[in-house]
Amino acid sequence: MRSFHFVLFLAAALSASDAVAQAKPQNPLYSRLNTFGVFGAYSNDSSHILLGVVADRKLLNIGASYNRRLWQGRIVNWQYSGELIPVALESDPLVHEVEVFTSPFYATFTHSYAPYGACHPDSGSFSQTINGITTTYTYTDTCSRQWTIGEAMSPVGFQWNFLPRNKLQPVFAAHGGYMYSSQPIPTSGAGSFNFTFDFGVGVELYRTRTRSIRAEYRYHHISNHDTASQNPGIDNGLFQLTYAFGR
Length: 247
What we know:
This protein is mainly β and 247 residues long. It has two domains: 30-91 and 147-246, Porin (Beta Barrel); 94-144. Helix content is 9%, strand content 62%. The protein has one helix and ten strands. The chain has an eight-stranded antiparallel barrel with strand order 1-2-3-6-7-8-9-10. The longest helix has 22 residues, at 2-23. The protein is elongated and about 85 Å long. Mean pLDDT is 90; it is low at 1-14 and 16-24.
């Protein structure tokens, strides 16, 4: 009888341990099959990093992202990544120039334009004689900024998360898409429709297995691919912060 009770106890213990083993997570990795995110991105300046020409351009993006896991191993989690940016703001410096002619006629002309470089306040005078006629005027340059609203989409992109067993994971991402603005940027001779691409690195911190915060630094480029009379291009170093969730 005691042997029979021992056999029953052993069978129950094995069943219980098997149930506990089955209850444990089958996937200990910090990753999601489908990931949704909301993000904000900002750059306070532009310069010639790789392809862009103009300077002193600011960029502010607010949007949403979707990632789909494509392949996962012990070292890397490879994902499709797409971004929709309903609020894409770009800021250009503006030069306001006032010219006052005193010879051979009296007149005042004003105009504004976005320079390729940064705007610097300036003033001075000019005098030139051609065929016995002397033209003289003074000029005064003042500076301001102009924000242009647009929208953007990056439907082609990928993201790689490394060390998916860790809560803190290094990230590399790259995207390609377009941006449409309400007026030409970054100069009046450029286009309202521009192509964009970016790539960069960052870290993703998983608060739980389904929710995380991602911080990235990206090289971001905007240009019209010579579809307008001018194509100066904008290079920004973009800081992006994303709150991500999913399953």
